[in-house]
Amino acid sequence: MTTQTVTGFRLPWTGGAHAYPEADTFSAAKEGFKRRRKGVMFHMPNTGEAGAQSCAYCGGILAEPALAASKDHGNNTRSEQSAAVKPDRFSTWHYDPRGKRVIGGVHYQCSWSNLLGAISSIRSF
């Protein structure tokens, strides 16, 4: 079975997906990434089962707007974000090929706050 035949899974720039792979369900993501050896970031719509999960960054429900949050990244670096006004259509997830699992669902705004905080932490060495 190829990824093109997995129901609810789309590769980038195919079937309406944008720059990242998209999966409608956790099982579709696991099936679509089944033969991957490296981890991959992908998006899931918050209207489905992903929307009921809580954000790994701010702790809010993914189908609702992101909450104001603060995170310590080490090296005296903190990332701060204000609360979002509207909910995101998609959430960002990661596929872990070693454990064959989907991890780390976050709001779009939270993923940027986490990334920029990690970059600032590395820069401050």
Describe the structure.
The chain is of the alpha+beta class and 125 residues long. The protein has one domain. Helix content is 18%, strand content 27%. The protein contains 2 helices and 7 strands, in the order E-E-H-E-E-E-E-E-H. A hairpin with a 2-residue loop joins strand 4 and strand 5. It is globular and about 45 Å long. It starts with 8 loop residues before the first strand and ends with a helix. The model has no long low-confidence stretch (mean pLDDT 90).
Furnish the topology, listing elements before pairings:
Blueprint: E1 9-10, E2 22-23, H1 26-32, E3 40-45, E4 69-74, E5 77-81, E6 90-96, E7 101-106, H2 108-123
Antiparallel strand pairs: 1-2, 3-6, 4-5, 6-7
Taking the alpha carbons of the first and last residues, their distance comes to 46 Å
**Separate helix tally:** 2
The SSE string, one letter per element, is EEHEEEEEH
**Largest sheet, if any?**
3 strands, antiparallel
Q: What overall geometry do the principal axes of the alpha carbons give?
A: globular
Q: In angstroms, what is the radius of gyration?
A: 15 Å
Helix/strand structural class: alpha+beta
The proportion of strand residues reads 25-35%
User: Overall pLDDT, averaged?
Assistant: 90
Number of domains: 1
Give the neighbour order of strands across the main sheet. 3-6-7
Helical content stands at 10-25%
> How many E strands?
7
Stretches where pLDDT is under 50 for at least 5 consecutive residues are none
